[in-house]
Amino acid sequence: MADAKGMLRSAAAVLAGGIIYSALTWVPLVGPFATGVLVGWWTGGGFLKGLRNAAYAASLGSIIVFYMIAAYGLPPAGTQAPINLVFLWMLLIWNVTSIIVAGAGGGIGALSRDVRTLIPTNLMESLSQHKPRKGVEYRICPSCGQGNVESAKTCIGCAKPLK
Ligand SMILES: [Zn+2]
Question: Is the pTM of this model over 0.70?
Answer without folding.
Answer: no
